[in-house]
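Hi support team,

I submitted a single chain yesterday and got back a structure, but I'm not sure I'm reading the C-alpha cell output correctly. Could someone confirm the output below corresponds to the sequence I sent? I've pasted both exactly as they appear in my results page.

Thanks,
R.
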Amino acid sequence: MTKILSLLIVAMMALHLIRPLGLPGLRKRRDFWKLAVLALAAMMVTVALSHT
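Hi R., thanks for writing in. Yes, this is the structure output for that exact sequence:
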C-alpha cells in the first residue's frame, strides 16, 4: 500500500511541476513541497494503521 501511495504522490508532484494542479494551496509550481509533506503524513498514517 505504501509503495502505491508513494508512486501516486511522486506522479502528482511531477505533474504539478509541469502544470500546477490548481487546487487551493497548490496554485504555483513552487508549491510542490506541500505534496511531499502530504505524502509523508499519508505514509505515516498507513504504516501506523498496518502495524496496529
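A quick pointer for reading it: Helices lie at 2-18, 32-50. Let us know if anything else looks off.

Best,
Support desk
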